[in-house]
Amino acid sequence: MSRHVPISRRTVLQGLGTAISLPLLDAMLPSFSWAAAAAETQPIRMAFLYVPNGMHMPDWTPEKEGANFDIGPILKPVQKYKDKMTVLSGLTLNGARALGDGGGDHARSVAAFLTGAHPKKTSGADIQNGASVDQVAAEKIGNLTRLPSLELGMEASAQSGRCDSGYSCVYTSNMSWRTENSPVAKEVNPAAVFDRLFGGADKLESSKAKAKRDEYRKSVIDFALEDANDLRLKLGGKDRTKLDEYLYAIRDIERRLADAEKLRGREPDVPDYPRPEGVPADFEEHMKLLFDLMALSLQTDSTRVASFMYANAGSNRGYRNIEVPEGHHDLSHHGNNKEKQRSISKINQYHTSLLKYFLDKLDGVKEQNSTLLDNCMVVYGSGISDGNRHNHDDLPIALFGSGRGTIKTGRHLRFEKETPLTNLYLSMLDRMGAPVKQLGDSTGRLPKLDG
Questions:
Q1: What is the per-residue burial (b if ≥16 Cβ within 10 Å, else e) of 224-235?
Q2: Measured in Å, how far apart are the chain's first and last C-alpha atoms?
Q3: Left (φ > 0), alpha (ψ -120 to 50) or beta: where does 440 sit?
Q4: N or C: which end of the chain has fewer CB within 10 A?
Q5: 439 and 136 in contact (C-beta within 8 Å)?
Q6: What is the residue range of 135's domain?
Q7: 40 with 372: CB under 8 angstroms?
Q8: Quick one: 263 and 115 in the same domain?
Q9: H/E stretch holding 450
Q10: Residues 185 and 295 in one domain
Q11: From the CB of residue 67, how many other CB atoms can be counted at a distance below 10 Å?
Q12: CB neighbours (10 Å) of residue 82?
């Protein structure tokens, strides 16, 4: 133990228009029963990462169940996290099925992914879906953090328009829903996320500070430097090291944001990809910046609930950087063509390689005798299984982290046919301290998670 003067868990570094939340430090823990207090102080966080167009399931699903499961090609990039991973097979998203409404599987797969509801088929303003698991958690425990939840993604959310077989674009681009009529738009601009995380409470003061910072090219840390130096005097050696590493990470993100701003005028490698204005032109750098910010938001307990969309429903982006220039959605309708299936699997593997970047960030943050990843529950998957069939049963779902030891990881679990995906969410909400009796089509808690 290396602490000097006890400090509050809610301590922030303040400066002109700046409020920098801090990671958990030893000095924030009660002095009595230090080891036990450390374990109880770690909050559980959860995040939901959505990928479009399903998976090439033969390269996703392990053949063996239990602890000796095999890692297929798609999960190979995250093999180092096998012991912190739970692959969940057999889960179903019934609300994404047609249920008499005809086409629109892509729109329904996003809208139902976190809600378990069947969205009303409309392209007008009379949208109707259901409250999503992240927003249920935000409503119950959001008062404990600066931000109740954080919604991020690579493509902007739409609030109107017709996108998929008569479904509103609202459904295809929003997976977080505060109520059945109120989607929560995601943020795609890393600079805006940064300002939201590290700006002060006074928005007018924050905007003035940002203008001054831009004029003098100063970091948010420069404005809070006096506070940071005062805090260092109260910390032990281990905490000072942790603080310095954290502040370096913030400076690094600022530098990369500045570099991205210089390159905004350059077109991305795929000119037909609808890149949102004001974000890095490079797809991978854009995603990594957002992942860095999401990891920082969880590390500092700025929020305990986050969601991320790799792309909106039915994304037809090509990936020239991995030598797959064809559109993702077009390839997903492979018609059992082997070459197209190989290309789909290649895209799936690329997506999980980016997931690894996020997991590396979480696992690199030490929290006493565990890591940030250990204290998280990160759901990764899609609301479609095979993109060619548009089926919504036996979904590709993987869970990373043990929720502070409440989930037995390192296993492949197969559940009974038609087990609702929302049963997993009820189990997660219990662990978050935000229990509910029902979510969408849930029928109960998911068994076997704790062993």
A1: beebbeebeebb
A2: 33
A3: left
A4: C
A5: yes
A6: 46-189+282-451
A7: no
A8: no
A9: none
A10: yes
A11: 12
A12: 17
Alpha-carbon distance of 110 to 444, in angstroms, equals 22
Residue 140 amino acid letter = K
pLDDT band at 273 (very low <50, low <70, confident <90, very high): very low
Residue 246 Cα distances to 293, 365, 376, angstroms: 12, 9, 19
What does pTM read for this prediction? 0.86
Task: State the Cα torsion 342-109-272-290 to the nearest 10°.
Answer: -90
* One-letter amino acid for residue 43 of the chain: P
Question: What is the domain count for the chain?
Answer: 2
Nearest to 151 by CA among 351, 352, 305, 311: 305
Is 232 in the same domain as 376?
no
* pLDDT at residue 200, rounded to an integer: 58
Span 206-224, pLDDT tens digits: 666 666 556 555 676 676 6
Which residue is associated with the tokens 């492949």? Answer: 412
E-strand ranges in 289-405 read 305-309, 366-367, 370-371, 376-381, 397-400
| Distance (Å) of CA 219 to CA 17, 112, 222, 226 | 12, 41, 5, 13
Give the pairing type, strands 45-50 and 305-309. Answer: parallel
> Looking at the structure, do residues 15 and 63 belong to the same domain, yes or no?
no
Q: Which two structure tokens, joined as six digits, stand for 145?
A: 């953090």
Q: Are residues 268 and 290 in the same domain?
A: no
Mean pLDDT, residues 289-316:
95
Structure token pair of residue 197: 């995380």
Q: What is the pLDDT of residue 362?
A: 98
Grouping H, G, I as helix, E, B as strand and the rest as coil, residue 218 is coil
* Locus of tokens 């995603």: 287
The distance of Cα 76 from the centroid of its chain, to the nearest Å, equals 20
Residues 62 and 113 in one domain: yes
Top-confidence residue, 36 or 209: 209
| Closest of 177, 184, 187 to residue 154, by C-alpha | 187
* Contact residues for 348 (Cβ-Cβ < 8 A; gap 6+): 51, 55, 56, 59, 60, 74
